[in-house]
Design brief:
The chain has four helices and nine strands; from the N terminus they run αααββββββββαβ. The longest helix has 51 residues. The chain starts with a helix and ends with a strand.
Length: 327
């Protein structure tokens, strides 16, 4: 005979909402147990996400460091063909006169930016997308800026033939670049200071005309040779740019025009919105080695009064006058 208790157990009337059957049958999670499991999962996610984020940043930096190493090899190959000189964009008359000034202390390197910045090392026919500021009025979107101008002595990009492709020009951590427009002078109206540049999203160039300044994540310090007796330690040659207009002393937000009133921008340092944020930058040096640089880059390597043996001006106090940073 079936007892009332057995009937109750079989019909499920004694089961809890989480699956308990009778006093000794199968059971599921109680509400408290479920909440504990959710709390543990949330805690693990909270611990793992920052670690995963750091791992992702480290992977991007490693890829970036590989990019600058490869570029260092290409620049060294160029120097082997050019009597130890790293690439210099051809001088116009004004630049030649400044660089060959009979007064050594008054010599300086200038106008390396007139071919579209560092993009001019790789392409003489550049096509910006979206007609950013500085683009010729009425120009069609498929029209390109052609370099050189009639008075500029260049027939092909100086780095043509030294790279297999343009992938090494873009850092995987580069989220946005400013486009300052075609210009012939860093102080001209067509060259607005940070942060007035038109924001663009960097893309790996597929062809030479895509090699535009905002599709390059790096800056280049022109004017070095591979064998310089007056430079004690190797100097940075090619590495992560800032999102300011990196020309000459304006590199690393050094010029007041790149530091708006009330800004907390620290001259000489990388900023949170740059490729790797305040963690610094990947650089290849004049001896071919690559490393991460942090701190005040401008002061460490290019201060004319520095007694630091990393400064290019330690022996020759005017050496940095014959360098120019372009991006």
């Amino acid at each position: 005979m079936t007892t009332p208790a057995n009937t109750c157990a079989r019909s499920g009337r004694g089961r809890s909402v989480f699956g308990r059957i009778g006093a000794f049958g199968p059971r599921g999670f109680t509400l408290i147990e479920l909440l504990v499991v959710i709390a543990i999962i949330a805690l693990l996610v909270g611990i793992l996400l920052p670690a995963l984020g750091k791992a992702r940043q480290a992977a991007r930096f490693t890829a970036c460091l590989s990019n600058v190493r490869q570029m260092g090899l290409a620049l060294t190959a160029y120097s082997n063909d050019q009597r130890s000189w790293y690439p210099l964009l051809p001088f116009n008359d004004a630049a030649r006169a400044a660089f060959n000034n009979p007064n050594v202390a008054s010599r300086f390197l200038d106008q390396q930016y007139i071919y579209g910045g560092v993009a001019g090392m790789f392409s003489l026919f550049q096509r910006p997308e979206g007609r950013p500021p500085g683009w010729a009025a009425g120009a069609s979107e498929d029209q390109a800026i052609s370099y050189p101008a009639p008075n500029q002595r260049i027939t092909k990009p100086v780095m043509e033939g030294y790279l297999d492709g343009f992938g090494v020009l873009v850092c995987p951590a580069d989220r946005a670049d400013g486009y300052y427009g075609p210009t012939t002078s860093p102080s001209s109206p067509g060259y607005p200071g940070f942060p007035n540049a038109s924001p663009q999203t960097p893309q790996v160039p597929g062809k030479p005309s895509d090699v535009v300044s905002y599709n390059i994540s790096y800056l280049y310090i022109a004017g070095f040779k591979t064998d310089e007796a007056n430079i004690v330690k190797p100097a940075p040659l090619w590495g992560d740019e800032t999102n300011g207009p990196d020309v000459s002393t304006r590199a690393w937000y050094f010029d007041s025009r790149d530091r708006p009133a009330g800004s907390n921008i620290r001259p000489g340092f990388y900023q949170p919105w740059d490729n790797h944020g305040t963690e610094g930058a990947a650089f290849v040096f004049t001896d071919g080695h690559a490393e991460q640089l942090k701190g005040d880059i401008q002061s460490t390597f290019f201060n004319t009064e520095s007694t630091n043996n990393q400064s290019v001006n330690l022996i020759d106090r005017t050496r940095s006058n014959r360098l120019q940073t372009i991006d």
